[in-house]
Amino acid sequence: MANNNIPISPISVAPMMNWTDRHERFFLRQISRNVKLYSEMITCGAILRGDKDRLLAFSSDENPLALQIGGIDKSELSECARIGEDYGYDEINLNVGCPSDRVQVGNFGACLMATPDLVASAVDVMASAVNIPVTVKHRIAINDQDEWSSLSRFVEVVSRAGCKHFIVHARKAMLDGLSAKENREIPPLRYELVYRLKDEFPDLSVTINGGITDLNSAEEHLCHVDGVMLGRAAYGDPYLLAEVDNRFYGEDKKYISRHEVLERFLPYVEKSVGEGVPLKSIGRHILGLFNGQPGARSWRRLLSEQLPKFNDNPTEALELLRSAADLVNYSDNLDIAAQ
Ligand SMILES: Cc1cc2nc3c(=O)[nH]c(=O)nc-3n(C[C@H](O)[C@H](O)[C@H](O)COP(=O)(O)O)c2cc1C
């Protein structure tokens, strides 16, 4: 039975398809040692019939790390949870929030908000298969469901099956008529329903997600819930996480500058490119590193132009990244403590 007594991470970075791959996660780990990371959603079909190492392998530096799974077949889900645990993930998370057409065709993702009993039986078999927590990331409701009654019923039913940590994207998903992107922007955010969830289910852990863009807001949310999950903000401006270890995990470490983050990341780049990973697969994730700094546009422009044509020589890869970083003004690159 899953051990659900592991403390909830106050800050986590959301699962994001094509974004939170292993390169991005390794990069973020250079900025914060403690923030909880999530994989992209990986479907059961891909895990069971695809190249497992390519999809699931990661560096142990990335822990604490959760594997997010998409699917609904119980035997496949329990098998995938077991595989994820064997690979060294710290948590298995079930996706009940993705509204995309492709996922709806497979009858999983957000459409499962309509069938909490089905989710509960899936969680039950997964929790029985592993010794790590099984969690669920979901919406507050879908389509014309009443928001509070569907949210509270969903959590009540699924928690009875062994899920003790719910990660709530605080919007409805509209499964007809809105694209996946629109479903992250148009339905209004209802943070108060997520707070109420924590009030009414105080023994469960609740992480709030959706539209949270800075650490001050995260701190305010943490007065009401156990955790805050950042998605697009952490991807677009990853240096946002530089304060997280001191502010939320009680560390007292020296802040590192953006340039130091890059220098820390370069040995990984050199090794990966040397092993045949295209530089653009790694470099695309670091375009936001200097966000807001003088010269950031030049850094981004040079990399956007050069990464696609790069010839994948490790030494030249480092030269390219360093010369792009030189375009960012050092004197303005103050660390957070000095700001
Ligand atoms: C490019 C992209 C891909 C995403 N892929 C996933 C996914 O694989 N699984 C998931 O649960 N949510 C996914 N999401 C949703 C995010 O996890 C998060 O719930 C959403 O972006 C709202 O949080 P934010 O406002 O902090 O970005 C994705 C979001 C984006 C922008």
Annotated CATH homologous superfamily of the largest domain? Aldolase class I
Measured as a percent range, the helix fraction is: 40-55%
Any ligands, ions or cofactors bound here, and which? flavin mononucleotide
Number of domains: 2
CATH fold naming of the largest domain? TIM Barrel
Ends distance? 47 Å
For the record, what CATH class of the largest domain applies? Alpha Beta
In one word, what is the shape?
globular
Uncertain ranges:
331-335
Q: How many DSSP-defined strands? A: 8
Strands, helices and their partners?
Layout: E1 11-13, H1 22-31, E2 36-43, H2 44-49, H3 52-56, E3 65-70, H4 74-87, E4 91-96, H5 101-105, H6 116-129, E5 134-142, H7 147-160, E6 165-173, H8 191-200, E7 205-209, H9 215-221, E8 227-230, H10 232-236, H11 244-248, H12 258-274, H13 279-283, H14 296-306, H15 314-325
Parallel strand pairs: 1-2, 1-8, 2-3, 3-4, 4-5, 5-6, 6-7, 7-8
Bound molecules: flavin mononucleotide.
Tell me about this structure.
This protein has 339 residues and is α/β, with parallel strands linked by helices. The chain has helices spanning 22-31, 44-49, 52-56, 74-87, 101-105, 116-129, 147-160, 191-200, 215-221, 232-236, 244-248, 258-274, 279-283, 296-306, 314-325; strands at 11-13, 36-43, 65-70, 91-96, 134-142, 165-173, 205-209, 227-230. The chain has 2 domains: 11-248, Alpha-Beta Barrel (TIM Barrel), CATH 3.20.20.70; 258-336, Four Helix Bundle (Hemerythrin (Met), subunit A), CATH 1.20.120.1460. Strands 1-2-3-4-5-6-7-8 form an 8-stranded parallel beta barrel, surrounded by 5 helices. Helix 1 packs antiparallel against helix 12 and helix 14 (296-306) packs antiparallel against helix 15 (314-325). The chain starts with 10 loop residues before the first strand and ends in a 14-residue tail after the last helix. The model is unreliable at 331-335 (pLDDT under 50). It binds flavin mononucleotide. The site of flavin mononucleotide has 22 residues, from strand 2 and helix 10.
